Amino acid sequence: MQELYTLLLNTIKNISIWSVLDILVVSFIFYKGYLLIKETRAEQLLKGIVLIVLLIPISSILKLDMLNFILNKTLTIGVLSVIIIFQPEIRRALEHLGRSAFEDIHNGQNVEKRSETVNEIVMAVSCLAESKTGALIAIEQGTGIGEVFASGTIIDAKLSSNLLENIFVVNTPLHDGATIIKKNRIYAAGCVLPLTVNNLTNKKLGTRHRAAIGLSENSDALIIVVSEETGVISLAVNGRLTRNYDKEKLKTILLKIMENRDSKRVKTAGEKVKTWIKGMKKD
Fold this sequence. Notes:
Blueprint: H1 2-14, H2 17-37, H3 41-61, H4 65-85, H5 87-98, H6 101-107, H7 111-130, E1 135-139, H8 146-149, E2 153-158, H9 161-167, E3 178-182, E4 185-191, H10 207-218, E5 222-226, E6 233-237, E7 240-245, H11 247-282
Parallel strand pairs: 1-3
Antiparallel strand pairs: 1-5, 2-4, 3-4, 5-6, 6-7
Helix pairs in contact: 3-4, 6-11, 7-9, 7-11
């Protein structure tokens, strides 16, 4: 016990401020990584990997040579498999890290313009829901979705509820696909979105809903879906689909999400600017 106490005391004495900083940084990275995969298929796969890692030393201690051999080989091959399987989550994380603070400020909107944009979208969605006209509308946020634009037709027109409704009229050239809202304008229509590969998704959901979830898994876009069968309005954000929105509820949640994201962008940019100013003063 005395030796353990002495060892612990010496360890504490040898801890420097850099060691503490190192631990905090690593903890923060693990925490952010967990939030990124929380409640996704990646979380279930991670649990399986942790189980394999725990079984390897146990099988070695119990002299289960065959099991130990299989687990080691599985873990070796699994590294490449994890990169392939976690591709959407890894891509989302790298896009988040690569997005600069000044670009985020540029993408931010003032309250009046944001409210006007949401009003036009909600009015169109409400009318489409009443007439049970199927629709798929993606609102670009901080992450660019240029690869989606290439699959459709560029319109780059002023956003209006009438034009948005007209695009989704059945049997018109651009109704069967997603319409993209970019910087308060109807930028493209008839776009093809990536379908989700999440096996946990409700099997009763149609192609529009699966496409909405798929894009939300790969970007921070807000995707609105109107069911042509029931007229139910749904919203996909960060890989999650919530349903049964009415006009006021949809407007409230869209404004809240956009406001929160703009606030985070400005806050992040402000913190970076302060850091740069401090560095300049030191120089």
